[in-house]
Structures are given as structure tokens and as C-alpha cells.
Design a protein that fits this description.
With 70 residues, the chain is mainly α. The protein is built from three helices and no strands. The chain is globular and about 45 Å long.
């Protein structure tokens, strides 16, 4: 895993070249606009954005759903 420091312009360029199957994790202080940058970027490309804040989820079921029998 690489740690890369980038400004907004560099982040947009990085998003342009990152394959769809790869994940990125943005790290920064609270309230600096990490979610807003991503929402804006993908909305401009016509994609729906759903923000999941893992720190606010109480258990894994919040993220992956409840188990069910097949």
C-alpha cells in the first residue's frame, strides 16, 4: 500500500487513472471535504454516489446486510 500526498487537482488525475476494481482510502482531518470531492467527481461523470461512514456503523450487518438462507 502506497501513501501518496495529493492536492485536489492531483487527486482528480489519480482517480482518472485508477482502475475501477481498485480501492482508494482518503485520509485527512475531519471536515476538509474528502467526501465532497469524491461526490463531486463521480457525480460529474454521471455516477450515483452513496457515502458509507464506517465509524458510524454499529455492526457488520450495517455494511453487508443481514444473512439469509438460500
Amino acid at each position: 500500500m502506497a501513501n501518496i500526498k495529493a492536492n485536489i487537482t492531483e487527486l482528480r488525475q489519480l482517480l482518472d487513472i485508477t482502475p475501477a476494481g481498485h480501492n482508494l482510502m482518503l485520509v485527512g482531518n475531519h471536515g476538509i471535504g474528502k467526501s465532497e470531492i469524491l461526490t463531486s467527481y463521480f457525480s460529474q461523470k454521471g455516477m450515483t454516489v452513496v457515502a458509507l461512514f464506517l465509524g458510524q456503523m454499529s455492526d457488520p450487518g450495517d455494511l453487508i446486510g443481514l444473512p439469509r438462507k438460500n
